[in-house]
Amino acid sequence: MEHEIQTNIAYRWFLGLGLTDKVPDHSTISWNRRTRFKDTGIFQEIFDEIVLQAISHKMVGGRVLITDSTHVKANANKHHYTKQEVLQNTKDYIDELNEAVAEDRKAHGKKL
Prior knowledge:
By secondary structure, this protein is mainly α. About 50% of the residues lie in helices and about 0% in strands. The two termini are about 20 Å apart. This is Transposase InsH N-terminal domain-containing protein. InterPro entries: Transposase_InsH_N.
């Protein structure tokens, strides 16, 4: 995302950045999510609004879910997969991910 903001004028415009303005470091978003906005619903509200706009513009239909498993070791095979419908709201999913990340960081002696 940081690279896209550096190179894509549309992202700069959306964020109110000029062509020569410094782009925030990629860790800024993560830091804000974990600390500054920890006990607020702002990220959930932003996420929900983006999804609603994507649905209204027929960009998503809710038939397939693809997740980023950055913190999970994977044994991926593009020819072997299982489609599965998940009935879980996004807040519970984010809470579950945050808890798993915190446990992994603690297990590996990293800062929370």
